[in-house]
Amino acid sequence: GKLPLRIVGSYYWNDGGVDPLPELTEMQEKYNTDLVQAKYLKINMDGGDDKWNALYVDPYTDRPDIVPEPIIPYETMRDVLVRADAQGIDVTCHCFGDLAVRLLLDAVEEAIAANPPRERRHKITHGTLIHPDDYARFGELGIVYDSTGVWMTYDPLNQSVATTRLGSERVQMMFPASSVIAEGGTFSLGSDWPASGYVSEYRPLFAIEGAVTRTLDGRKDVPPLGGDAAKLSVEQALRAQTINAARGMGMDDIIGSLEVGKKADLVVLDKNLFDIDPNDISEVDILYTMMGGKLTHDSTAE
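Below the sequence we write its predicted structure tokens.
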């Protein structure tokens, strides 16, 4: 009764020589309560662009001679994913570059072809760059695209490291949430905290603001990353932080929206986000939080 949040855990698999499914299955049986569940198989397809170990369809602009390999060989990853999918286990996968995204999409497509229909919740995390040819595949395959709102901005890291590695054209295509949504995909917001980019921030309102403005907090003088077309609407960002995030955890049947029969996990704000300047979203105060119908935070009592 003391845990003030719900935890959906993942089994981190980073050794292609080890079969992760027996231990994950054991953990799923051991940790399966209302508040704590061991649920996902976590895979890293690649690294990041700072060390030239993210996987891209096109070569690095500054080092075209570097062609990194997946952290786990594709065939090994695919075979495990297909078996996991057959057992009803969903995968959440770190995919930084657009080739990493494509490989995971390909593996899920093979799993769907090989296994009986079911309600899947596979998820790609980060998706810093996604090739335009793959935008529609998220909706077609039912894969959730999950990323971090405070990273979806034109910050000094994007201006320096990413531009050096990828060139300005690809940088302006980073975090294409609006394009994936337009093609019928589901986008969710997560903090990835305590991991960080230029900004280390776990608070959801900062993520929502970043996704809506595509600029650093309070920086109206900086152009939005990807231009105005890349911005999410407030409604899209709210859905990404609530019901879509719940879907990505396989919990949208019990949390994520205000519906009869769902658990009363609520947040009450002091302002309506639809009525304020999007650049001020992160300044809104949290009045109350509630989990399972119990008050867990009351700012008016402080």
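The first helix runs from residue 21 to 30.
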